[in-house]
From TrEMBL:
Keywords, in A-Z order: Signal
Keyword Signal attributed: yes
Record flagged with keyword Signal: yes
Coiled coil residues, start to end: none
Name this protein carries in UniProt: YncI copper-binding domain-containing protein
Pfam short name (any one): DUF1775
InterPro entries the record matches: LpqE-like, Lxx211020-like, PCuAC_sf, UCP037139, YcnI-copper_dom, YcnI-like_sf
CDD domains documented for this protein: YcnI_like (cd08545)
Signal peptide limits: 1-23
Gene3D superfamilies: PCu(A)C copper chaperone, Uncharacterised protein YcnI-like PF07987, DUF1775
Residue ranges of domain YncI copper-binding in the record: 24-169
Length: 337
């Protein structure tokens, strides 16, 4: 009986310790191969003393480069850019600046639930066996929790009250090609280099369809290919208003996504902000509206099946005066420049 009680107590203590460890903000996968592009998935298990989480800020360490966050429905997104301490090679380009902090803002994650925040990036220029710390600030209205403690070399991180999430760097396998081609995870509106623009002719794709509805002429529609399991996609097209009356793109829907939002992306003072345009966007008489990489774009949320190159994505555009217009977006490679 004494042995059973001792075993039960040990099991209880072990479970308690496990629960305590999982109560911290941490990464889903805690080991990453060197010189590999990864999806760093940050887990936020609770709010701040019962309050809902409204903002998550993640500082990116040196050695985690070319970072791009995955947008989240209901959250605004900021990417703060700055200088790297070293210069990194990105397919022959020498890169000295990039994202140094990611902020998901103005959300509402109840303390009753947990959620994940995903950042694509490459681990480069660090030694295998070392760890990269990602200090996180969790805001819950006026309450703030900082997950930023890092143990000294050889110290025990388990004794820290508010440890920063860590990624342990392990030796990578030589695949002959670095998969920055996870660029299917690019934020809608950015190409694989983080620069706006996509040359469709370089992909050998047929010209997208042109649809005329009333005074509107809609052309150049395309979407980007996505990774398996990726829930968010991007879409683009051009609308020319040939009439003498203003119109407005009010909303967009698609049978392949749970929701389609109209987003605006803008960079000012090295801070890139992306926000949803809930009231739609105007198309002035005689003017042309472009939804393009790095600017206005469609955000497909809760995509049922990831977009594959060569497929088409059906969308229904709803205009204030013209009404509903059906359009097919061609799915192009995510790696087009």
């Amino acid at each position: 009986m004494k042995t059973i009680k001792t075993f039960a107590l040990a099991a209880l203590l072990s479970a308690t310790a496990f629960a305590g460890a999982e109560a911290h903000v941490s990464f889903l996968d805690k080991e990453v191969p060197l010189d590999t592009t990864i999806l760093a998935t940050l887990q936020v298990p609770h709010g701040c003393d019962g309050k809902a989480t409204t903002e998550v800020r993640v500082k990116l360490p040196e050695g985690f480069v070319f970072a791009k966050p995955q947008p989240k429905a209901g959250w605004e997104l900021e990417v703060i850019k700055g200088d790297y301490q070293k210069t990194y090679d990105n397919h022959g380009d020498k890169v000295k600046t990039g994202a140094i902090e990611i902020r998901w803002k103005n959300g509402n994650l109840s303390d009753d639930f947990y959620d994940t925040f995903v950042i694509q990036g490459k681990v480069s220029g660090v030694e295998a066996g070392s760890s990269l710390a990602f200090p996180v600030t969790q805001l819950c209205g006026d309450a703030v929790t900082a997950w930023d403690q890092v143990a000294e070399a050889g110290g025990d991180a388990h004794g820290l009250k508010s440890p920063a999430p860590l990624l342990k760097v392990v030796a990578g396998e030589d695949h002959g090609h670095d998969h920055d081609d996870m660029a299917g995870m690019n934020m809608p509106g950015m190409d694989t280099t983080g620069k706006p623009g996509m040359d469709m002719s370089a992909m050998g794709a047929a010209a997208p369809e042109t649809v005329k509805a009333g005074d509107l002429e809609i052309s150049g529609g395309f979407a980007k290919a996505m990774l398996p399991g990726q829930p968010v996609g991007g879409g683009f097209f051009t609308v020319k208003n040939n009439g003498k009356t203003d119109d407005r793109l009010v909303s967009v829907s698609s049978p392949v996504a749970g929701e389609v939002q109209i987003h605006e992306m803008a960079t000012k003072d090295n801070v890139m902000r992306m926000r949803q345009l809930k009231d739609g966007v105007a198309i002035a008489a005689g003017e042309t509206l472009k939804l393009e990489p790095g600017n206005l774009h469609l955000m497909f949320q809760k995509v049922k099946t990831p977009f594959k190159q060569g497929d088409t994505v059906p969308v229904t555009l709803t205009f204030e005066k013209t009404g509903k217009v059906d359009l097919a977006l061609q799915v192009l490679s995510a790696q087009g420049k």
